[in-house]
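Both lines are retained for reference:
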Amino acid sequence: MWVDAICINQDDLEERSQQVLLMREIYSKSSGLFVWLGEDINLCGTAFDYILNALDEFGYPPGPDVHNTSLVKELVEDALMNLTDEVSSSLDHLFSNSWFRRAWTFQEILCASEPEVFAGDRSIPYEDVVNFVQLFCDFGLAGLSSNPLAKLAMGQIKTMRAYRDRPTTLLELAAITRPRDATDPRDKLYSLTATASDSAVFPYQPNYHVAVNTLYKDFTVAWIAEYEGINVLDLCVYVEDNLERPSWVPNFADSKHIVELIDTLEEHFEACGPCDESKKISIRNDTLSTPGLLLESIAISASRSLNIENGQVSILNRIAEGALAIFYLVREAYQMAFMSCWNVPESIRTQAFWRTLLGGNWIDNCRLRQHHEANFNSYWEYLQQFDPDGEPVQKSDDYDLFNVNNLDIRVTKMARGRRFCMSESGRMGWIPEAGKKGDVISVLYGSFLPVLLRPKGKAYEVIGTCYIHGIMDGEAVAAAQEPMQQIELV
């Protein structure tokens, strides 16, 4: 038996550096993995029972035929009826356990075979936990938790399932594990080296004598050199912290200030246009120099991003509060988009609006198509039921559960940590929460997404990547009258 808390001397930096290299072998060659959550059987036991019963009732996987709407609604109603406050509290307690948020457990689950989760003398296969989370996500129930830590854990479990059977790069792993915690901030990168498909990119073997800011910068520089691109900017979030580094180096240790990635697994945006070997990215000291276009400034941004804190309320109230928060956000975006000052035909603004709200992509990682507009219009009608300032209407259950859930997921993904914005020319988009009027929309060579910059002397600071409708696929580069200029980031 190998127990991580016992078999590694955490106070010996040399031993920790050596043991990191063995983690993949230890877990991949084990006959099983036991996850110990503690002795609180009474709290977790109720959650275990509900999970197993829900999987049985839904026949999941594969689950019911999604086109059989009457059966689906009946099953969801039963699940909600059984989701008492006691059960909800038990689920929150289970998923808020720190094990689900630790940086190193990501690697353990990916490498180990047949993990089993224990609480007291009760246990449940980890695969059942994964299936339950996927089931709740598929049927729009995952957002009912009142505990932000539990929501985070369920999101991580679902994400791990999507990535566990495909080659994943260091940068992808760093992105999807950002919400996880590590006692030593260097482990936010070291914990990924054994599972990444491109671990050779790492500039050196794990070394706990290297300063945190040095490690993060060295990794960023090595990644840019290897891939001749700057998509690492996707992980940059402008925030005041104590980690001295250039704005183009992500703070991988920051698990609080996080925005969802805009791009998809299947069909990347290419705001920077096609590859051009004549264009070069260079780094000197703390300055990154890259070819790019400075397009225009932000004219106005919304007052809110999405941050729903439901507290201890009933299940039905949580549904209503979540819908109301999204309604307010969409309504404010609509009011901004259709102000009379924008010199853009209404028909064009209508198309741009719904496509921008959904970030140009549908839930299944494909680009939006014209037929998705009807899905959005139906979703907007559903949200208007929750308008406290509108005409009283009879709230209807006659809606497509999967459509509402899919649109909720898309809008929530775009709005969490971002704000809807309008540029000076009337372009719509999503910018990082720290963005403000006067920040500059840019297209930088080597970045799939537009980048929001803030002037700093003759150079610029990185605020973060953004979605700006109409320039996501190289349109700005193709229409440019002048060649790209060299832009310096500090």
